[in-house]
Amino acid sequence: MISKDLPLVELHRHLDGSIRLSTILELGLQHNLPLPARTLEGLRPYVQVSTPQPGVMEFIAKFEWMTGVLVDYDACRRIAFESVEDASNEGIDYIELRYSPWFMAEAHHLQPEGIVEAVTDGIRAGERDFDIKVNQLGILSRHYGPETAMQELNAQLRHADEFAGLDLAGDEAHFPGEWYAEHFKKARDAGWHITVHAGEADGPRSVWQAVRELGAERIGHAVHAPEDLALLDYLREKRIGIECNLTSNVQTSTVADYPSHPLRLFLEKGIAASINTDDPGISAIDLHYEYEVAAPLAGLTPAMIRLAQENALETAFLSEEEKQALRSKKLA
Q1: Residue 116, in any domain of the structure
Q2: What phi, psi does 167 have (nearest 5°)?
Q3: Taking the mean position of all CA atoms in its chain, how far away is CA 203?
Q4: Number of folded domains in the chain?
Q5: Are 88 and 132 in contact (CB under 8 A)?
Q6: Residues 104-136: pLDDT tens digits?
Q7: CB-based burial label for 27 (10 Å; 0-12, 13-18, 19+)
Q8: Are 272 and 259 spatial neighbours (Cβ–Cβ below 8 Å)?
Q9: CA distance 210 to 199
Q10: Which of 238, 295, 230 lies closest to 272, judged by CA?
């Protein structure tokens, strides 16, 4: 169960994987888009996952109608605001929302920089209305290649103060992190924190590359990290956070089932692993589900669940003063 005396923190949630089903339907009908169905229940199987997919990229295909309704900047502003509202309704005290402006812009030929401006407007309005702290993480999508990724990065850097960090996501198996070393150096030089999707569709070498060459302070997924015991020791010693996503990893067939997930192992070995949702709009879950249903299914004891909640705050991209403020607010 979630510990009420600790801040509830979400570190790994994709903005464009969190769009409400009702919003997809409403925007689709409003703009006369070729939706595959015109009711919520009819639309659900095209957007949400109900059975495990053959792999990560098949799961990502579900984004078609998440980004497909982002017809203009008002739509981007709306989904950002609603994501903050949804996080507040879940009782989340601090959340990091990540997104790829290029990916969100692609379906309707918008400008990545305009996406950043609209999302920022929506997030800031949500913070004011719902009394929740939110940071943005930019994403570079591997599958666009290094040249497009640099354009995407530059669009984000023009609003550098709006971002807490940078992430690398997408097709890990075919687009190695080595291609993006220059991009992440620019991000670090801008003062951004670094998190990288690694060890999900590729093995431990991808995690090593992320921490050694890209400067990752946290790793998204890292499911294959236990294949290298030296890597686990390194992650523990350096306090590199692991953003675990239990239900998502089952749905992408990255793990066979909840008991097979390495989150329990990470916690037993003293690694700063946390519990997150990934793409709750696709997985049809929320953070409470991950804590109260998925975590016990993965073999976590109540003490381990509390430790994961503490780890989320420890590895959040916040100053020590901001972390203490969250703790104090929770105890007030």
Answers
A1: yes
A2: -130, 155
A3: 20
A4: 1
A5: yes
A6: 999 999 999 999 999 999 999 999 999 999 999
A7: buried
A8: no
A9: 9
A10: 238
Q: What pLDDT score does 1 carry?
A: 87
242 by DSSP, 3-state: which? strand
Q: Which two tokens stand for residue 83?
A: 């994501």
Query: The domain containing residue 321 runs over which residues?
Result: 9-331
- For residue 15, the tally of other CB atoms under 10 A from its CB is 25
Q: Cα–Cα distance between 210 and 226 in angstroms, integer?
A: 16
Residue 55 lies in a domain: yes
Dihedral pair phi/psi, residue 131, rounded to 5°: 55, 55
pLDDT in tens, 285-326: 999 999 999 999 999 999 999 999 999 999 999 999 999 999
Please say whether the beta carbons of 18 and 83 come within 8 A.
yes
Question: What is the CB neighbour count within 10 angstroms for residue 32?
Answer: 8
Give me the numbers of helices (H) and strands (E) for the chain, helices first please: 18, 8
Closest of 23, 64, 32 to residue 47, by C-alpha? 64
Q: Dig out the tokens for 16 from the structure.
A: 């464009």
Contact 263, 275 (CB under 8 A): yes
The answer to the question of residue 1 being in a domain is: no
Q: Which residues are catalytic?
A: 200
Place of tokens 């309707």: 108
Domain-located, residue 184? yes
Please give the angle made by the CA atoms of 9, 171 and 295, to the nearest 5 degrees. Answer: 35
What per-residue string of b and e applies to 120-129 under the rule 16 or more CB within 10 Å gives b? bbbbeebeee
Q: What is the CATH number of the domain that holds 148?
A: 3.20.20.140
Question: Is the CA virtual torsion 176, 177, 183, 187 positive or negative?
Answer: positive
